[in-house]
Amino acid sequence: MEIVTLTADNFDEEAVHTTDLVLIDFWASWCGPCRMLSPVIEEIAQQAPAGVKVCKVNVDDEHELAAKFGVMSIPMLVVLKNGAVAASTVGVQPKAAILELLERAKG
Fold it and tell me: Where is the signal peptide (predicted)?
């Protein structure tokens, strides 16, 4: 599945009004740890089971979304379930930890 780039314009449609579990990666191009995490996020997106959508938010371009989620450090991963935050974590995470985050968020 392709990674969806979230903006203020498409956020509600792509991340809130969906039955999918939504993994959001808040990142920036200048952030070394974000660049380290990016291939892991891409791998998860390629292998994501039905019902999981993987998205990215560039915090430099989308200040409103970053503020809405209280992003203070990046990379920050947020999992939305039914439009609400079900889980989140900050910093580079191994693939297994991110998959576990998604499993826990499924409830």
Answer: none
The residue from 21, 34, 52, 105 that is catalytic is 34
How far is it, in rounded angstroms, from Cα 4 to Cα 70?
21
- The model scores a pTM over 0.90: yes
Interval 6-20: pLDDT, tens: 999 999 999 999 999
Active-site pick, 1, 7, 28, 31: 31
